[in-house]
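Reminder to self: tokens first, then the designed residues, so the page reads top to bottom the way the pipeline ran.
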């Protein structure tokens, strides 16, 4: 499984100081975050779109979700933000008093949900025909149009 983000991506987005705490590699945390992001996309985009066999997404994507057809670069920031709040900062935090790590967890959690919702609103890039080229028809927007009460 390829990760959506690397240690270099983490340093670029968060800063090099994340590696100043005795940990040299966050590859495992980024792998877990990649898996979580893929699951989020499957549940909140693919499964939601499959509820209607008449939807455009159902017609263009098909009946089976294949996470290898997603464009990994689209989910890089989401993966980093999720890794930060769910895996990296809890690993670094002593959870004593008012440490800076626990203060940052809520910031990155909020940032993650903002980022992933924005990406889903822009459109999920899903290479339906597996030709490694994303056509306009392979950018799938999913909008809820039904009002729930």
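Designed residues (149 positions):
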């Amino acid at each position: 499984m390829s990760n959506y983000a690397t240690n270099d991506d983490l340093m670029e987005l968060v800063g090099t100081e994340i590696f100043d705490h005795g940990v040299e590699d966050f590859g495992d945390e980024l792998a877990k975050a990649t898996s979580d992001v893929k699951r989020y996309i499957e549940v909140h985009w693919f499964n939601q779109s499959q509820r209607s066999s008449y939807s455009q997404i159902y017609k263009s994507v098909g009946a089976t979700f294949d996470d290898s057809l997603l464009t990994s670069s689209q989910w890089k920031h989401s993966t980093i933000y999720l890794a930060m709040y769910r895996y990296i900062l809890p690993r670094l935090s002593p959870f004593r008093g008012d440490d800076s790590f626990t203060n940052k967890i809520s910031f990155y959690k909020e940032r993650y949900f903002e980022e992933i919702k924005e990406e889903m609103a822009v459109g999920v890039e899903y290479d339906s025909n597996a030709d490694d080229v994303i056509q306009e028809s392979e950018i799938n927007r999913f909008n809820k149009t039904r009002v729930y009460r």
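The beta strands are 124-125, 139-140.
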